Amino acid sequence: MNAANTSHLDLQAIAKDVMKEHGFQPDFPPQVAQQLAQLKAHPPQAVAAPGLRDLRSLLWSSIDNDTSRDLDQIEVAERLPNRQIRVLVAIADVDAFVPKDSPIDQHAARETTSVYTGVRIFPMLPEELSTAASSLQENADRISVVIEFVVGSDGIAESSDVYRALVRNKAQLTYRSVGGWLENSNEAPPKVAASADLQAQLRLQDEAAKSLKQQRYQHGALNIDTNEARPVVLNQQIIDVLQQERNRATDLIEDFMIAANGVAARMLEKVSSLRRIVKTPERWDRIVQLATDAGEKLPAEPDSKALNDFLTKRRAADPDHFADLSLAVIKLIGPGQYVLERPGDPVQGHFGLAVQDYTHSTAPNRRFADIVTQRLIKALLAGQPDPYSDNELAAIASNCTIKEDAARKVEREMSKRVAAIAMSNRIGQSFDAIVTGKTAKGTFVRTLRPHVDGLLAQGQDGVDVGDKLQVKLVRTDVQRGYIDFARL
């Protein structure tokens, strides 16, 4: 399909249709507008909340994507004696704006997640909340749930606390600019350059995050790359897809969120709650084979520590192709899921993060599971009854897992359409690729530069996940989102 023939396509309309095909109802019902009007007329009164701490004087900052407006969390750190660092993560108190079983809550419970299609965002919550009233915007007073923990010199998070607080984001920053500055590859962004205190604060946070990460790696957390592709748009036309790379700033936030989610999970051990788990990989034998092909040996039984040691060695030995290996391992481990955990239940854990206690609590503007966890935390803090029964939590866990899988499919289908437009003038060109999936529907590959997923339509016999190939682009179909390759 020629690129010129794609200009008439309305990708935003297509994205909405794809959402509906996968079980989403992206339009908010009329009752939501009525609830928003009531919230505007009678906003939650932060000063009236009992036990609310006033932490607005601290040097809070946020780090997120360049275009993000739904800011879920802000961070600040403090140096303590004995090389310890106290970290505070303030999470937007979305529950204050969205009461349980209200129209907005019912919509969020059904959709469970915001969906990012590359051409349009379908928010779980109305943007009047997620990007405004309940977003931790710069220079705005906001109510929050603060998760506090102390990072020791050994990287162990301890001495945790959870409470409600009034906070104020002093600097809205971006991954790209802060990451480059932390890595000394570019100058400090203007807000950072203008404040020696903010520079010191971010470097302290970076120090704490690196300690947390090193500790997790020692316990077997997987050292993997999960770079994503994003469209390049010029004059409202998609002209390319580029890799969005990780850096020190993305790692900093990830490490803080993992630690905060662990604190939240441990706080809820004595009540029924949601857990985020990644089961032991069923295709461990294929991961063992990938290690063998690289001249390494893994044990016959799944072992996250051994796997991480292998990944760390491969990152050092072959950094240019480490992302390829990471992708194969991620695909073979499989996606996470939400489950109900009751007091006394066996702990299932998260294989990829090498943690036993893990929930989702840090993104309530974007994920319904996080709103549920926030309500459980607030009830516990207030000494109130649990807001959900076990049956309710089990149903929520199931729906969140189903919708998360559906969201991945929507995002994948739309990314293929975006990529089909960008690649439509490259028919016949050859690319290095890696096999990412082998199912009854076909064998799938991802090209390495740029990162584009497609079907291996020719030459698929005898290949498996993780195999590296040379492929040729033979067809694109933007309307259907098809990108077909042939093995060379």
Describe the fold and architecture.
This protein has 488 residues and is of the alpha+beta class. It folds into 2 domains: 3-218 and 226-278 and 335-417, no CATH class; 426-488, Beta Barrel (OB fold (Dihydrolipoamide Acetyltransferase, E2P)). The chain is built from 13 helices and 17 strands. Strands 1, 2, 3, 4, 7 and 8 form a 6-stranded mixed β-sheet that branches. Helix 7 crosses helix 8 (248-267) and helix 9 packs antiparallel against helix 11 (322-333). The radius of gyration is 23 Å and the shape is globular. The model is unreliable at 1-5 (pLDDT under 50).
Overall spatial form? globular
| Largest sheet composition | 6 strands, mixed
**Number of structural units classed as domains:** 2
Mean pLDDT: 89
Q: What is the strand content?
A: 15-25%
* SSE ordering: HHEEEEHEEHEEHHHEEHEHHHEHHEEEEE
Which radius of gyration do the C-alpha atoms yield?
A: 23 Å
Kindly list the characteristics that best describe this protein:
488 residues; alpha+beta; 2 domains; 6-stranded mixed β-sheet; 5-stranded mixed beta barrel; 37% helix; 25% strand; disordered N terminus
Outline:
It contains 13 helices and 17 strands. The chain is an alpha+beta fold and 488 residues long.
List the helices and strands and how they pair.
Layout: H1 11-21, H2 30-41, E1 53-54, E2 60-64, E3 73-79, E4 85-92, H3 103-111, E5 115-116, E6 121-122, H4 127-133, E7 141-151, E8 157-174, H5 175-182, H6 190-193, H7 196-218, E9 228-234, E10 237-244, H8 248-267, E11 273-277, H9 284-293, H10 304-317, H11 322-333, E12 337-341, H12 368-382, H13 390-423, E13 430-439, E14 442-448, E15 451-458, E16 468-477, E17 482-487
Parallel strand pairs: 1-8, 2-8, 15-17
Antiparallel strand pairs: 3-4, 4-7, 5-6, 7-8, 9-10, 11-12, 13-14, 13-16, 14-15, 16-17
